[in-house]
Specification:
Blueprint (H helix, E strand, L loop, with lengths): L5 E6 L2 E6 L6 H9 L11 H20 L5 H15 L18 H18 L12 H5 L5 H38 L4 E6 L2 E7 H27 E2 L16 H13 L4 E2 L3 H6 L2 H27 L10 E2 L17 H24 L10 H25 L5 E2 L1 H10 L8 H4 L1 H14 L3 H7 L4 H7 L12
Parallel strand pairs: 5-6
Antiparallel strand pairs: 1-2, 3-4, 7-8
Helix pairs in contact: 1-4, 2-3, 2-4, 2-6, 2-8, 3-4, 4-6, 6-7, 6-12, 7-10, 10-11, 10-12, 11-12, 15-16
Length: 468
Protein backbone atom coordinates (compact mmCIF):
# COMPACT_ATOMS: atom_id res chain seq x y z
CA UNK A 1 0.00 0.00 0.00
CA UNK A 2 1.40 3.39 -0.96
CA UNK A 3 2.28 5.62 1.97
CA UNK A 4 0.21 8.80 2.23
CA UNK A 5 2.29 11.85 1.52
CA UNK A 6 2.34 14.38 4.32
CA UNK A 7 3.66 17.81 5.11
CA UNK A 8 4.66 19.23 8.47
CA UNK A 9 2.53 21.96 10.03
CA UNK A 10 2.93 23.51 13.47
CA UNK A 11 0.71 24.76 16.27
CA UNK A 12 1.36 25.71 19.89
CA UNK A 13 1.99 22.07 20.82
CA UNK A 14 4.53 21.47 18.09
CA UNK A 15 4.79 19.74 14.74
CA UNK A 16 1.94 17.74 13.20
CA UNK A 17 1.92 15.61 10.05
CA UNK A 18 -0.94 16.65 7.76
CA UNK A 19 -1.90 14.91 4.48
CA UNK A 20 -0.01 16.83 1.83
CA UNK A 21 -3.04 17.38 -0.41
CA UNK A 22 -5.31 18.76 2.31
CA UNK A 23 -6.03 22.42 2.99
CA UNK A 24 -6.54 21.91 6.70
CA UNK A 25 -3.68 22.33 9.14
CA UNK A 26 -2.28 21.20 12.45
CA UNK A 27 -5.19 21.89 14.79
CA UNK A 28 -7.72 20.29 12.44
CA UNK A 29 -5.48 17.23 12.15
CA UNK A 30 -5.17 16.92 15.94
CA UNK A 31 -8.94 17.07 16.34
CA UNK A 32 -9.42 14.57 13.50
CA UNK A 33 -7.14 12.11 15.29
CA UNK A 34 -8.40 12.75 18.83
CA UNK A 35 -12.18 12.73 18.23
CA UNK A 36 -13.32 9.74 16.22
CA UNK A 37 -16.80 9.89 17.73
CA UNK A 38 -19.66 9.23 15.36
CA UNK A 39 -17.57 10.09 12.33
CA UNK A 40 -19.99 8.45 9.90
CA UNK A 41 -23.01 10.35 11.15
CA UNK A 42 -21.87 13.49 12.95
CA UNK A 43 -19.47 15.32 10.63
CA UNK A 44 -20.39 18.95 9.96
CA UNK A 45 -22.43 19.38 6.79
CA UNK A 46 -23.01 22.06 4.19
CA UNK A 47 -25.00 24.40 6.44
CA UNK A 48 -22.21 24.83 9.00
CA UNK A 49 -19.41 25.04 6.43
CA UNK A 50 -21.37 27.68 4.52
CA UNK A 51 -21.96 29.65 7.73
CA UNK A 52 -18.24 29.56 8.53
CA UNK A 53 -17.47 30.87 5.06
CA UNK A 54 -19.94 33.73 5.48
CA UNK A 55 -18.48 34.56 8.89
CA UNK A 56 -14.84 34.58 7.78
CA UNK A 57 -15.60 36.58 4.65
CA UNK A 58 -17.39 39.24 6.72
CA UNK A 59 -14.64 39.34 9.33
CA UNK A 60 -11.93 39.87 6.71
CA UNK A 61 -13.97 42.62 5.07
CA UNK A 62 -14.61 44.31 8.41
CA UNK A 63 -10.94 44.12 9.39
CA UNK A 64 -10.00 45.60 6.02
CA UNK A 65 -12.40 48.52 6.49
CA UNK A 66 -11.12 49.12 10.02
CA UNK A 67 -7.47 49.04 8.97
CA UNK A 68 -6.77 45.81 10.85
CA UNK A 69 -5.74 43.87 7.73
CA UNK A 70 -3.95 45.08 4.60
CA UNK A 71 -6.38 45.27 1.70
CA UNK A 72 -4.47 42.77 -0.46
CA UNK A 73 -4.36 40.21 2.34
CA UNK A 74 -8.05 40.72 3.17
CA UNK A 75 -8.97 40.22 -0.47
CA UNK A 76 -7.19 36.86 -0.53
CA UNK A 77 -9.07 35.75 2.58
CA UNK A 78 -12.37 36.99 1.16
CA UNK A 79 -11.81 35.10 -2.10
CA UNK A 80 -10.95 31.88 -0.27
CA UNK A 81 -13.93 32.29 2.06
CA UNK A 82 -16.21 32.76 -0.94
CA UNK A 83 -15.08 29.40 -2.28
CA UNK A 84 -16.02 27.87 1.08
CA UNK A 85 -19.44 29.53 0.86
CA UNK A 86 -19.88 28.15 -2.64
CA UNK A 87 -19.20 24.58 -1.47
CA UNK A 88 -15.91 24.05 -3.25
CA UNK A 89 -14.09 22.81 -0.15
CA UNK A 90 -16.71 20.90 1.84
CA UNK A 91 -14.42 17.85 1.92
CA UNK A 92 -11.87 19.90 3.86
CA UNK A 93 -14.14 20.05 6.93
CA UNK A 94 -13.83 16.54 8.41
CA UNK A 95 -14.41 17.25 12.10
CA UNK A 96 -17.14 15.66 14.18
CA UNK A 97 -19.78 17.35 16.32
CA UNK A 98 -18.60 15.70 19.53
CA UNK A 99 -15.40 17.65 20.12
CA UNK A 100 -14.57 20.55 22.39
CA UNK A 101 -17.76 22.22 23.58
CA UNK A 102 -16.66 25.63 22.33
CA UNK A 103 -16.21 24.46 18.73
CA UNK A 104 -12.60 25.68 18.80
CA UNK A 105 -11.30 23.01 16.45
CA UNK A 106 -14.06 23.70 13.91
CA UNK A 107 -13.26 27.39 14.02
CA UNK A 108 -9.59 26.58 13.46
CA UNK A 109 -10.56 24.17 10.68
CA UNK A 110 -12.17 27.11 8.88
CA UNK A 111 -9.22 29.36 9.62
CA UNK A 112 -6.69 26.80 8.34
CA UNK A 113 -8.58 25.91 5.18
CA UNK A 114 -9.14 29.54 4.24
CA UNK A 115 -5.55 30.50 5.08
CA UNK A 116 -4.06 27.64 3.06
CA UNK A 117 -6.36 28.29 0.13
CA UNK A 118 -5.40 31.97 0.21
CA UNK A 119 -1.74 30.93 0.26
CA UNK A 120 -2.38 28.78 -2.81
CA UNK A 121 -4.04 31.68 -4.57
CA UNK A 122 -1.01 33.83 -3.83
CA UNK A 123 1.33 31.16 -5.22
CA UNK A 124 2.74 30.15 -1.84
CA UNK A 125 3.37 26.78 -0.22
CA UNK A 126 0.64 25.05 1.79
CA UNK A 127 1.24 25.28 5.52
CA UNK A 128 3.86 27.99 5.22
CA UNK A 129 1.80 30.55 7.18
CA UNK A 130 4.11 33.31 5.98
CA UNK A 131 1.68 34.91 3.55
CA UNK A 132 -1.56 34.18 5.40
CA UNK A 133 -1.74 32.99 8.99
CA UNK A 134 -4.88 31.18 10.23
CA UNK A 135 -4.74 32.78 13.69
CA UNK A 136 -3.24 36.19 13.10
CA UNK A 137 -5.04 36.98 9.85
CA UNK A 138 -8.14 34.83 9.22
CA UNK A 139 -9.04 34.84 12.94
CA UNK A 140 -8.14 38.51 13.49
CA UNK A 141 -10.35 40.11 16.15
CA UNK A 142 -12.06 36.80 16.88
CA UNK A 143 -12.19 33.92 19.34
CA UNK A 144 -13.83 30.55 18.89
CA UNK A 145 -15.99 31.61 21.83
CA UNK A 146 -17.67 34.30 19.74
CA UNK A 147 -17.28 32.88 16.23
CA UNK A 148 -18.94 29.54 16.91
CA UNK A 149 -22.08 31.08 18.47
CA UNK A 150 -22.19 33.40 15.47
CA UNK A 151 -22.05 30.39 13.13
CA UNK A 152 -24.82 28.81 15.22
CA UNK A 153 -27.09 31.78 14.60
CA UNK A 154 -26.24 32.17 10.91
CA UNK A 155 -26.82 28.47 10.20
CA UNK A 156 -30.02 28.42 12.28
CA UNK A 157 -31.52 31.42 10.48
CA UNK A 158 -30.65 30.04 7.06
CA UNK A 159 -32.09 26.62 7.93
CA UNK A 160 -35.36 28.15 9.11
CA UNK A 161 -35.66 30.66 6.29
CA UNK A 162 -34.63 28.40 3.45
CA UNK A 163 -36.08 25.03 4.46
CA UNK A 164 -38.50 24.78 7.37
CA UNK A 165 -40.62 27.92 7.02
CA UNK A 166 -41.15 27.49 3.26
CA UNK A 167 -42.13 23.83 3.73
CA UNK A 168 -44.63 24.75 6.45
CA UNK A 169 -46.03 27.54 4.30
CA UNK A 170 -46.61 25.21 1.37
CA UNK A 171 -48.48 22.73 3.56
CA UNK A 172 -50.63 25.51 5.01
CA UNK A 173 -51.46 26.65 1.46
CA UNK A 174 -52.71 23.14 0.58
CA UNK A 175 -54.95 23.15 3.64
CA UNK A 176 -56.20 26.66 2.84
CA UNK A 177 -57.35 25.52 -0.61
CA UNK A 178 -58.99 22.38 0.76
CA UNK A 179 -60.80 24.29 3.49
CA UNK A 180 -62.47 26.31 0.72
CA UNK A 181 -63.10 23.33 -1.55
CA UNK A 182 -64.70 21.24 1.19
CA UNK A 183 -66.59 24.04 2.94
CA UNK A 184 -70.04 22.56 2.17
CA UNK A 185 -69.35 18.97 3.29
CA UNK A 186 -71.08 18.45 6.64
CA UNK A 187 -69.79 15.60 8.80
CA UNK A 188 -69.85 14.30 12.34
CA UNK A 189 -67.76 16.22 14.82
CA UNK A 190 -65.93 14.24 17.50
CA UNK A 191 -64.75 15.14 20.99
CA UNK A 192 -63.28 12.70 23.56
CA UNK A 193 -63.20 10.22 20.64
CA UNK A 194 -67.02 10.26 20.85
CA UNK A 195 -69.65 11.66 18.48
CA UNK A 196 -70.29 15.39 18.77
CA UNK A 197 -72.23 18.06 16.91
CA UNK A 198 -71.61 18.52 13.18
CA UNK A 199 -68.79 20.39 11.54
CA UNK A 200 -67.82 20.86 7.93
CA UNK A 201 -64.75 19.21 6.48
CA UNK A 202 -63.65 22.70 5.47
CA UNK A 203 -63.82 23.81 9.11
CA UNK A 204 -61.74 20.82 10.22
CA UNK A 205 -59.04 21.49 7.65
CA UNK A 206 -59.08 25.21 8.44
CA UNK A 207 -58.06 24.20 11.95
CA UNK A 208 -55.07 22.33 10.57
CA UNK A 209 -54.17 25.32 8.43
CA UNK A 210 -54.35 27.66 11.40
CA UNK A 211 -52.22 25.36 13.56
CA UNK A 212 -49.45 25.41 10.96
CA UNK A 213 -49.71 29.17 10.45
CA UNK A 214 -49.70 29.86 14.19
CA UNK A 215 -46.62 27.67 14.65
CA UNK A 216 -44.91 29.53 11.81
CA UNK A 217 -45.67 32.82 13.55
CA UNK A 218 -44.15 31.41 16.72
CA UNK A 219 -40.95 30.52 14.88
CA UNK A 220 -40.87 33.95 13.25
CA UNK A 221 -41.26 35.54 16.69
CA UNK A 222 -38.10 33.72 17.82
CA UNK A 223 -35.95 35.06 14.98
CA UNK A 224 -34.91 38.39 16.55
CA UNK A 225 -32.93 36.54 19.20
CA UNK A 226 -31.07 34.62 16.50
CA UNK A 227 -30.32 37.84 14.61
CA UNK A 228 -28.10 38.95 17.53
CA UNK A 229 -24.51 37.83 16.94
CA UNK A 230 -21.81 37.22 19.56
CA UNK A 231 -19.06 38.34 17.19
CA UNK A 232 -16.93 41.05 18.77
CA UNK A 233 -17.04 39.55 22.25
CA UNK A 234 -13.88 37.48 21.63
CA UNK A 235 -12.90 35.20 24.54
CA UNK A 236 -15.17 36.17 27.45
CA UNK A 237 -17.39 38.96 26.12
CA UNK A 238 -15.10 41.93 26.76
CA UNK A 239 -13.96 42.31 23.14
CA UNK A 240 -10.29 41.91 23.98
CA UNK A 241 -8.04 42.20 20.85
CA UNK A 242 -10.92 43.25 18.61
CA UNK A 243 -11.45 46.73 17.18
CA UNK A 244 -14.34 48.37 19.10
CA UNK A 245 -16.35 48.66 15.88
CA UNK A 246 -15.50 45.18 14.61
CA UNK A 247 -18.54 43.31 15.93
CA UNK A 248 -21.08 45.77 14.60
CA UNK A 249 -19.39 46.13 11.21
CA UNK A 250 -18.96 42.37 10.74
CA UNK A 251 -22.63 41.80 11.67
CA UNK A 252 -23.63 44.42 9.12
CA UNK A 253 -21.61 42.61 6.46
CA UNK A 254 -23.11 39.24 7.42
CA UNK A 255 -26.54 40.82 7.06
CA UNK A 256 -25.59 42.10 3.62
CA UNK A 257 -24.24 38.70 2.58
CA UNK A 258 -27.27 36.70 3.77
CA UNK A 259 -30.13 39.14 3.32
CA UNK A 260 -31.15 38.71 6.96
CA UNK A 261 -31.08 41.53 9.55
CA UNK A 262 -28.22 40.33 11.73
CA UNK A 263 -26.92 42.75 14.34
CA UNK A 264 -24.21 42.77 16.97
CA UNK A 265 -25.59 41.40 20.25
CA UNK A 266 -25.94 44.29 22.70
CA UNK A 267 -24.60 42.11 25.53
CA UNK A 268 -21.77 39.80 24.54
CA UNK A 269 -21.55 38.17 27.97
CA UNK A 270 -24.99 36.62 27.52
CA UNK A 271 -24.21 35.80 23.90
CA UNK A 272 -21.18 33.69 24.88
CA UNK A 273 -22.32 32.13 28.14
CA UNK A 274 -25.95 31.33 27.28
CA UNK A 275 -27.74 30.29 24.13
CA UNK A 276 -31.30 31.11 25.08
CA UNK A 277 -32.10 32.28 21.56
CA UNK A 278 -31.36 28.83 20.17
CA UNK A 279 -33.35 27.21 22.98
CA UNK A 280 -36.31 29.50 22.25
CA UNK A 281 -36.19 28.89 18.50
CA UNK A 282 -35.98 25.15 19.07
CA UNK A 283 -39.02 25.35 21.34
CA UNK A 284 -40.91 27.09 18.55
CA UNK A 285 -39.87 24.35 16.12
CA UNK A 286 -41.17 21.82 18.64
CA UNK A 287 -44.57 23.54 18.58
CA UNK A 288 -44.69 23.07 14.80
CA UNK A 289 -43.78 19.41 15.26
CA UNK A 290 -46.60 19.07 17.79
CA UNK A 291 -49.05 20.60 15.32
CA UNK A 292 -47.82 18.20 12.64
CA UNK A 293 -48.31 15.28 15.04
CA UNK A 294 -51.93 16.27 15.72
CA UNK A 295 -52.72 16.80 12.04
CA UNK A 296 -51.13 13.53 10.92
CA UNK A 297 -53.00 11.63 13.61
CA UNK A 298 -56.29 13.26 12.57
CA UNK A 299 -55.72 12.33 8.95
CA UNK A 300 -54.95 8.70 9.67
CA UNK A 301 -57.94 8.36 12.02
CA UNK A 302 -60.30 9.91 9.47
CA UNK A 303 -58.86 7.59 6.82
CA UNK A 304 -58.89 4.52 9.08
CA UNK A 305 -60.47 1.33 7.85
CA UNK A 306 -61.19 1.87 5.09
CA UNK A 307 -64.33 -0.23 5.66
CA UNK A 308 -64.32 -1.02 9.37
CA UNK A 309 -62.81 2.23 10.66
CA UNK A 310 -64.00 5.81 10.35
CA UNK A 311 -63.18 5.90 6.65
CA UNK A 312 -64.38 9.45 6.03
CA UNK A 313 -61.26 10.55 4.17
CA UNK A 314 -59.41 8.86 1.34
CA UNK A 315 -55.67 9.38 1.16
CA UNK A 316 -53.24 8.46 -1.64
CA UNK A 317 -52.27 4.80 -1.95
CA UNK A 318 -48.49 5.08 -2.12
CA UNK A 319 -47.21 1.54 -1.55
CA UNK A 320 -48.34 -1.91 -0.38
CA UNK A 321 -48.77 -2.01 3.37
CA UNK A 322 -48.22 -5.61 4.30
CA UNK A 323 -45.97 -8.50 3.40
CA UNK A 324 -48.73 -10.99 4.22
CA UNK A 325 -52.09 -9.22 3.80
CA UNK A 326 -52.77 -8.66 0.08
CA UNK A 327 -54.14 -5.29 -0.90
CA UNK A 328 -53.49 -3.63 2.46
CA UNK A 329 -52.60 0.07 2.25
CA UNK A 330 -51.30 1.97 5.27
CA UNK A 331 -51.11 5.70 6.13
CA UNK A 332 -47.34 5.66 5.81
CA UNK A 333 -46.83 9.39 5.32
CA UNK A 334 -48.73 10.04 8.55
CA UNK A 335 -46.55 7.51 10.31
CA UNK A 336 -43.35 9.05 8.97
CA UNK A 337 -44.41 12.55 10.01
CA UNK A 338 -45.35 11.47 13.52
CA UNK A 339 -42.04 9.65 13.92
CA UNK A 340 -40.19 12.79 12.88
CA UNK A 341 -42.26 14.78 15.39
CA UNK A 342 -41.12 12.41 18.15
CA UNK A 343 -37.52 12.85 17.03
CA UNK A 344 -37.90 16.63 17.09
CA UNK A 345 -39.27 16.45 20.64
CA UNK A 346 -36.16 14.53 21.69
CA UNK A 347 -33.74 16.87 19.92
CA UNK A 348 -35.48 19.87 21.46
CA UNK A 349 -35.07 18.38 24.93
CA UNK A 350 -31.36 17.88 24.25
CA UNK A 351 -31.04 21.50 23.12
CA UNK A 352 -32.91 22.77 26.18
CA UNK A 353 -30.70 20.78 28.54
CA UNK A 354 -27.52 21.82 26.74
CA UNK A 355 -28.64 25.44 26.86
CA UNK A 356 -28.90 25.23 30.64
CA UNK A 357 -25.29 24.16 31.02
CA UNK A 358 -23.44 27.46 30.66
CA UNK A 359 -20.84 28.09 33.35
CA UNK A 360 -19.50 31.55 34.10
CA UNK A 361 -18.52 33.15 30.76
CA UNK A 362 -19.04 30.19 28.41
CA UNK A 363 -21.45 27.45 27.48
CA UNK A 364 -19.49 24.43 26.25
CA UNK A 365 -22.38 22.52 24.66
CA UNK A 366 -22.39 24.62 21.50
CA UNK A 367 -21.66 21.95 18.87
CA UNK A 368 -24.38 19.54 20.00
CA UNK A 369 -26.88 22.39 20.21
CA UNK A 370 -26.10 23.48 16.66
CA UNK A 371 -26.16 19.93 15.30
CA UNK A 372 -29.48 19.08 16.95
CA UNK A 373 -31.09 22.33 15.84
CA UNK A 374 -30.10 21.78 12.23
CA UNK A 375 -31.13 18.14 12.47
CA UNK A 376 -34.60 18.93 13.81
CA UNK A 377 -35.28 21.71 11.30
CA UNK A 378 -34.08 19.67 8.33
CA UNK A 379 -35.96 16.54 9.37
CA UNK A 380 -39.19 18.40 10.01
CA UNK A 381 -38.94 20.38 6.77
CA UNK A 382 -38.42 17.20 4.76
CA UNK A 383 -41.23 15.39 6.57
CA UNK A 384 -43.70 18.25 6.05
CA UNK A 385 -42.78 18.39 2.38
CA UNK A 386 -43.16 14.63 1.95
CA UNK A 387 -46.50 14.66 3.78
CA UNK A 388 -47.74 17.52 1.60
CA UNK A 389 -46.77 15.91 -1.69
CA UNK A 390 -47.63 12.30 -0.97
CA UNK A 391 -50.60 12.65 1.38
CA UNK A 392 -52.16 16.04 2.14
CA UNK A 393 -52.49 17.19 -1.46
CA UNK A 394 -54.38 14.01 -2.33
CA UNK A 395 -56.93 14.01 0.51
CA UNK A 396 -60.47 13.39 -0.71
CA UNK A 397 -63.76 13.03 1.20
CA UNK A 398 -65.56 9.67 1.27
CA UNK A 399 -69.02 11.18 0.92
CA UNK A 400 -70.99 7.98 1.48
CA UNK A 401 -69.27 7.24 4.79
CA UNK A 402 -69.58 10.86 5.87
CA UNK A 403 -73.33 10.87 5.16
CA UNK A 404 -73.94 7.51 6.85
CA UNK A 405 -72.12 8.53 10.01
CA UNK A 406 -73.86 11.90 10.10
CA UNK A 407 -77.26 10.26 9.82
CA UNK A 408 -76.47 8.00 12.78
CA UNK A 409 -75.03 10.77 14.93
CA UNK A 410 -77.20 11.07 18.06
CA UNK A 411 -75.56 14.39 18.95
CA UNK A 412 -77.75 16.03 16.32
CA UNK A 413 -80.18 16.13 19.22
CA UNK A 414 -78.29 19.20 20.45
CA UNK A 415 -80.25 21.25 17.93
CA UNK A 416 -83.40 20.54 19.96
CA UNK A 417 -82.03 22.19 23.13
CA UNK A 418 -83.38 25.71 22.39
CA UNK A 419 -86.81 24.28 21.60
CA UNK A 420 -87.47 21.52 24.18
CA UNK A 421 -84.67 21.93 26.73
CA UNK A 422 -81.55 19.95 27.58
CA UNK A 423 -83.20 17.32 29.81
CA UNK A 424 -85.91 16.31 27.34
CA UNK A 425 -83.39 16.25 24.49
CA UNK A 426 -81.12 14.00 26.57
CA UNK A 427 -83.99 11.56 27.14
CA UNK A 428 -84.59 11.36 23.39
CA UNK A 429 -80.89 10.71 22.64
CA UNK A 430 -80.57 8.03 25.33
CA UNK A 431 -83.80 6.36 24.20
CA UNK A 432 -82.54 6.21 20.63
CA UNK A 433 -79.18 4.81 21.76
CA UNK A 434 -80.54 2.20 24.18
CA UNK A 435 -83.36 1.01 21.95
CA UNK A 436 -81.43 1.10 18.68
CA UNK A 437 -83.75 3.66 17.12
CA UNK A 438 -83.01 6.57 14.87
CA UNK A 439 -82.96 9.94 16.55
CA UNK A 440 -86.01 11.00 14.56
CA UNK A 441 -88.01 7.95 15.60
CA UNK A 442 -87.13 8.46 19.26
CA UNK A 443 -88.09 12.13 19.06
CA UNK A 444 -91.46 11.38 17.47
CA UNK A 445 -92.08 8.77 20.14
CA UNK A 446 -91.49 11.49 22.73
CA UNK A 447 -94.21 13.63 21.13
CA UNK A 448 -92.32 15.89 18.73
CA UNK A 449 -94.09 16.75 15.51
CA UNK A 450 -92.32 15.46 12.37
CA UNK A 451 -92.32 18.90 10.77
CA UNK A 452 -90.73 20.44 13.89
CA UNK A 453 -87.99 17.81 14.06
CA UNK A 454 -87.19 18.22 10.38
CA UNK A 455 -87.08 22.01 10.70
CA UNK A 456 -85.03 22.09 13.87
CA UNK A 457 -82.51 19.29 13.20
CA UNK A 458 -80.59 20.66 10.22
CA UNK A 459 -76.96 19.41 10.29
CA UNK A 460 -75.69 22.18 8.01
CA UNK A 461 -77.26 24.87 10.19
CA UNK A 462 -75.58 23.28 13.21
CA UNK A 463 -72.13 24.12 11.83
CA UNK A 464 -72.60 27.86 12.55
CA UNK A 465 -73.98 30.05 15.34
CA UNK A 466 -77.72 30.68 15.67
CA UNK A 467 -79.36 32.82 13.03
CA UNK A 468 -80.57 35.78 15.04
Amino acid sequence: MAETKTRIEHDALGAVRVPADRLWGAQTQRSFENFSIGRRNYVWGRAVVRAFGILKKACAAANRELGQLPAELAELIIAAAQEVIDGRWDGEFPLVVFQTGSGTQSNMNANEVIANRAIQMAGGELGSRTLVDPNDHVNRGQSSNDTFPTVMHIAAILALAETLLPAAGRLAAVFAAQSRDFAAIVMTGRTHLQDATPVTLGQIISGWQTQIEAAVKGIEASLPGLYELALGGTAVGTGLNAHPLFGALAAEMIARETGHPFISAPNKFAALSAHDAVVAASGAVRVLAGAAMKIANDVRWYASGPRTGIGELRIPENEPGSSIMPGKINPTQCEALTQVAVQVFGLDHAIAFAGSQGNFQLNVFKPVMLHDFLDETTLLAEALESFRIHCAAGIEPELAHIAAHLEQNLMLVTALNPHIGYERAARIALKAHREGQSLRAAALAEGLKPEDFDAWVDPAAMTRPLDI
